[in-house]
Specification:
By secondary structure, this protein is an alpha/beta fold. It contains 18 helices and 19 strands. The chain is globular.
Length: about 550
């Protein structure tokens, strides 16, 4: 999350090549030379300002003036955490100095934040991102608990980037749900409908506020209202300003929420539901029924598995990790079970061994399931291997053996998806540079694209400056739209690097199975052919087979 270059909702400025280079990043941080400007948040019903969001800026006219330039420099210097902390300090101090009364200020917060500062006389709402929620759930839930102890509100930002986050909304229970209109515009209508219904259900259950971002014109305003937003922000309501005076009514306050259950999940459920004595086969069958429901669900679903699993259950869990939306395994010596939660479904199955048998409890009580899941996620590890899809940073030569490995991986994914009635997408990404481009420049662009890939997808290095992105569990009706959206996200990540790495371009080719390819080899051939067509078109574009 520290790498976010979108702290500023305004498109990063290109530096004038004739301007002075200005101070280096180290000097900016030492001298507290960062600036905050504030974008107004309005009530869509009345047009009245109700809050502001703090945006970061560097020194005027320097090579670090825009947030994109700042965060690129910090990434190159290995000082992202330092920059995150400095941005937060600047936002809070400027809002306290220039804000009037007890208004509400939204600030971007890194999951690596150690000390939570005081907001002073302003009410602070922390923006956490969808991607952080699905890739580092334990860190997000623990940080949210600390922020709430300080009286801060919680906003989940960038909704629309990764539908998997919808499954965790009921457990996190944000005070503000932020819909990004730009991200939603790139999604198929069926997926937008899923997002809107999930967000609307969450807002109604908990009283969360829905805020639409990037409202730039009257058409966007109509869209925001149709999506159920009651608050909005964007240039349609004015450019960012240098003072935090905006709120004209009581600040946004955190919604009430029960504390997550602690201790043994089995004990927490068994005190409300009667346990029954069963054998191991009944436990396995009960878990299989629940997990199969999650596997075939049409809505994003969170699945957390507990305890030691059988070989069959491990195989099911691997499918869930690719398909359900969010999937996590937590070890446990004494209890086995699963928690399944979605926008409109909640269930939990837990079993505790008693000699050769088990005590089994099952509940569909949504509040109970949510409380248990929130407690489990606060105990989750720092990173979730199934969700990060992390691959070795080393680039593998695209020798025939490397091609066979990719074909085998794609073939297995196609077979798995065919069994459950879903689709598979393959993108092949080529990174090209001019004669003078450096290895470091290409590596920076690749790192930006890697962070832009959805947490449910796999990033696979396959050759020098050549990478594959494997998408599984795609809905048959909207699979092409998902592929296009992922390709757009990769190209958008490259655009944020154009200021500092103009000599690097990216081309993308894609294929879909089973609609356009029946085997892994065929999908690879099609994607490579589409990549060649994208390169012939001048680069920095994507093509989907047939071209």
């Amino acid at each position: 999350m520290a790498q976010r270059a979108d702290v500023d909702r305004v498109t990063p400025l290109r530096t004038d090549p004739t301007s002075a280079p200005g101070p280096a990043l180290g000097q900016v941080l030492r001298e507290n030379a960062l600036r905050s400007v504030f974008q107004t948040v309005v009530d869509l019903a009345t047009g009245e300002p109700v809050a502001v969001e703090a945006l970061v800026r560097g020194p005027h006219g320097s090579a670090l003036a825009s947030p994109g330039q700042l965060f690129t420099a910090a990434a190159d210097a290995g000082r992202l955490a330092d920059l995150d902390a400095a941005c937060l300090r600047t936002a809070l101090s400027t809002s306290q100095r220039t804000g009037a009364g007890a208004g509400t200020v939204f600030v971007n917060v890194s999951t690596d934040l150690v000390d939570v500062p005081s907001g002073g006389h302003v009410h602070v709402v922390a923006d956490l991102t969808e991607r952080a929620l699905t890739t580092r759930p334990g860190d997000v839930f623990r940080l949210a608990a600390r922020l709430r102890e300080r009286g801060w509100g919680i906003a989940l930002d960038d909704l629309g980037a990764d539908p998997a986050a919808l499954a965790l909304l009921p457990a996190l229970r944000p005070d503000v749900l932020k819909l990004d209109l730009r991200l939603l515009a790139a999604r198929p209508e069926a997926e937008v409908a899923t997002i809107v219904q999930a967000v609307g259900a969450q807002a109604e259950r908990d009283g969360s506020v829905v805020l639409a971002e990037r409202i730039e014109n009257a058409a966007d305003l109509r869209t925001a209202r149709a999506l159920g937003a009651t608050l909005g922000q964007g240039w349609f309501f004015g450019r960012p300003r240098e003072d935090a005076t905006a709120a004209t009514r009581e600040p946004l306050r955190p919604v009430a929420r029960p504390a997550p259950l602690t201790g043994s999940p089995f004990a927490a459920v068994a005190c409300r539901r009667d346990a029954r004595r069963v054998d191991a086969d009944v436990v396995e069958d009960t878990l299989r029924h629940l997990e199969r429901h999650a596997l075939r669900s049409v809505e994003p679903t969170a699945v957390v598995s507990l305890g030691t699993a059988s070989a069959e259950r491990v195989a099911r869990h691997e499918q869930l990790a690719r398909r359900a939306g969010f999937s996590l395994s937590l070890p446990g010596a004494d209890e086995v079970g699963a928690v399944v939660l979605g926008p409109h479904f909640a269930s939990i199955v837990l079993a505790r061994p008693v000699g050769a048998e088990f005590d089994l409890v099952v509940s569909h009580d949504r509040e109970l399931v949510v409380s248990v899941l929130a407690g489990l996620l606060e105990q989750a590890p720092e990173r979730t291997p199934e969700r990060t899809g992390e691959a070795s940073p080393a680039v593998v030569d695209l020798a025939p053996a490397g091609q066979r490995d990719l074909v085998a991986t794609v073939s297995q994914a196609i077979d798995d998806d065919r069994r459950v009635g879903t689709g598979t997408g393959l993108l092949v990404v080529g990174v090209d540079g001019s004669e003078g481009s450096s290895t470091a420049s290409r590596a920076t662009v690749v790192a930006r694209m890697r962070r832009a890939v959805r947490s449910v997808d796999r990033w696979i290095p396959v050759g020098p400056d050549l990478f594959a992105v494997l998408l599984t569990g795609l809905p048959r009706a909207g699979s092409e739209g998902v592929v296009e959206r992922v390709a757009d996200a990769l190209l958008m990540a490259v655009e944020t690097s154009m200021d500092t790495h103009p000599d690097v371009s990216v081309s993308i080719g894609a294929s879909l199975a089973p609609t356009r390819a029946a085997t892994g080899a065929e999908a690879q051939r099609q994607a490579v052919a589409a990549l060649d067509a994208a390169r012939r078109a001048g680069g920095h574009c994507a093509r989907i087979w047939p071209v």
